[in-house]
Amino acid sequence: MTSIQLETPVTGKYTQPTGLFINNEFVKGKKGQEFEVINPATEKVTCKVHEATEEDVDIAVAAARKAFQPGSEWRTMATADRGKLLLKLAELFEKNAEMLAAVEALDNGKSISMARGDIGACIGCIRYYAGWADKIHGKVITTAEGSFNYTKREPIGVCGQIIPWNFPLLMWAWKIAPALACGCTLVLKTAEQTPLSGLVAASLVKEAGFPPGVVNVLSGFGKTAGAAIASHMDIDKVAFTGSTLVGRTIMKAAASSNLKKVTLELGGKSPNIVFEDADIDEAISWVNFGIFYNHGQCCCAGSRIYVQESIYDKFVARFKERAEQNIVGDPFHEKTFQGPQVSQLQYDRIMDYIKIGKEEGATVETGGERHGDVGYFIKPTIFSNVKNDMKIMQEEIFGPVCAIAKFKDADDVLEIANDTTYGLAAAVHTKNLNTAIKVSDNLKAGTVWVNSYNLLHWSLPFGGFRQSGIGRELGKAALENYTQIKTVAINMKGAMF
Ligand code: ADP
């Protein structure tokens, strides 16, 4: 069996594929292994899915290689037709949006209203890259009379893509859409905690009409299937989103196998800076959203909050009040803002950090404990009275936990905000244009939001400075990840030597 009937409160019954998606078919893994998918809100088993091992990765890569051969349907397809297939996929996402959102809520535990937002962002992303498919050009470069040179942007080939569990379908779309617009084929591995939505989406890939082998989606574990992708000799490029720790492993595996090209979108410990002249109500709303959105499970979460000293006490009191109003609970309730953490492991890691914070001497302003009796729920937690060298100020917690500290002026806050090994994102709240520009210019981060937070858009490049990553996703920048430049130099002057 490679599909089952599941049920969600929003959609009623729906068909959930459980097989590995290879060559446009759902198949069992070669070893016949399956693994359990846990509902984080109830801690009960939702279903089992088939597990990809090394052999299945080989089969999927062979399918992707075949689909990439010169003369194949995919390689000979007009670029505009590639765009049309992506548009069709976006249309199918739109048609099935409510079902996709429900699967995401069931699998990941995110609230249904936030899941709907994710699906909207997937649709936008896929449409955006559909538009790029026939606009990827090289250049003519003149060097001297009698020579004619041009560059082409060729698809890089077979891509391995490894995605995390915090935005299962959005990361699927961020990876798949630019790779397909560029004419690559791919083998994507979903995270073992959240394999369901990627498989439903794979069935839409088939329905959209992509040729077999172009998109392959595997459920499986990092140390087996993920490692097999990273070290595969016939994968031309690996794109990874996940922890910095695993990012290093991927890079090492790529280096010691076939030197496949690598892009990494990794962790963060992003500063969110509030100046005394900011609109306090707006700043509190963005700071709250910056850390507690998606239960703090965002690589760009604004987990270090710096507030100018003159407004610090007032800000802490009001932020605490705001965080306590966040509705934590059943992902399928329309008003829920925060659902459970994704897994027991993540729950335990976060609770450990909360314990460490308390032991380090920080003050718990609110939260600091589990919510309810069942499910991996943690109360929104704010630590004050923190020092910059404390673990909770330096390490990525990946949960609804933040630390708040005061600063004197722009120079002071820049020094402490940049005192981290990460550099994914940051934000500054102020009404003063000069402050906004000076602070943004000097923050070591790939994205800086001014008077907002977490406002990502498919047309804006996203990625990390320092140990937060290599390369950029989204926007035109992502096309560079999936194409390589070929230079053709034509000599028209006959023999020269
Ligand atoms: P987290 O710690 O938040 O679960 P990870 O970085 O471990 O995040 O996981 C992100 C993705 O990387 C998942 O798809 C996971 O299966 C995969 N992964 C984990 N370990 C490895 C590894 N050694 N090689 C390749 N992929 C891995």
From TrEMBL:
<dbReference type="InterPro" id="IPR016160">
    <property type="entry name" value="Ald_DH_CS_CYS"/>
</dbReference>
<dbReference type="InterPro" id="IPR016161">
    <property type="entry name" value="Ald_DH/histidinol_DH"/>
</dbReference>
<feature type="active site">
    <location>
        <position position="265"/>
    </location>
</feature>
<dbReference type="InterPro" id="IPR016162">
    <property type="entry name" value="Ald_DH_N"/>
</dbReference>
<dbReference type="Pfam" id="PF00171">
    <property type="entry name" value="Aldedh"/>
</dbReference>
<comment type="similarity">
    <text>Belongs to the aldehyde dehydrogenase family.</text>
</comment>
<dbReference type="InterPro" id="IPR029510">
    <property type="entry name" value="Ald_DH_CS_GLU"/>
</dbReference>
<dbReference type="InterPro" id="IPR015590">
    <property type="entry name" value="Aldehyde_DH_dom"/>
</dbReference>
<dbReference type="GO" id="GO:0004029">
    <property type="term" value="F:aldehyde dehydrogenase (NAD+) activity"/>
</dbReference>
<keyword id="KW-0560">Oxidoreductase</keyword>
<protein>
    <recommendedName>
        <fullName>Aldehyde dehydrogenase</fullName>
        <ecNumber>1.2.1.3</ecNumber>
    </recommendedName>
</protein>
<feature type="domain" description="Aldehyde dehydrogenase">
    <location>
        <begin position="26"/>
        <end position="488"/>
    </location>
</feature>
<dbReference type="GO" id="GO:0019413">
    <property type="term" value="P:acetate biosynthetic process"/>
</dbReference>
<dbReference type="InterPro" id="IPR016163">
    <property type="entry name" value="Ald_DH_C"/>
</dbReference>
